[in-house]
Amino acid sequence: MTHSFTPGKSEGTTILKLAGPLTLSTIFGFQNEFRGQTPQVMIVDLSESPYMDSAGLGLLMNYYVSAESHGRKLLLAGANERIESLLEMTKVHKVLKTFPTVDAAEASL
């Protein structure tokens, strides 16, 4: 998995683009860097991520909890049907806000 952080259209927004699966074997290389990012709004672009396992979901949920407790937001964008199914099966879709595209996520702010 590869990742990149880029500034969003709005001040205080960062977009994290993931390419590849977000799984236990891929998160170790970047989880500390991810947790160290503290923009007002973090949008995770999953459009090039084919799937996620429970470890990847746990990483996102831990980030979400930390962000919420500090008045920040985490939004997900571009999740495919497989990832959306995981979010629904685990009831996380009721907590994490998802959008079809990064532009839609930014427009919601």
UniProtKB/TrEMBL annotation:
Identification of the protein by name: Anti-sigma B factor antagonist
Residue ranges of coiled coil: none
Residue ranges constituting the STAS domain according to the UniProt record: 11-109
Gene Ontology MF term list: anti-sigma factor antagonist activity
Pfam family, one: STAS
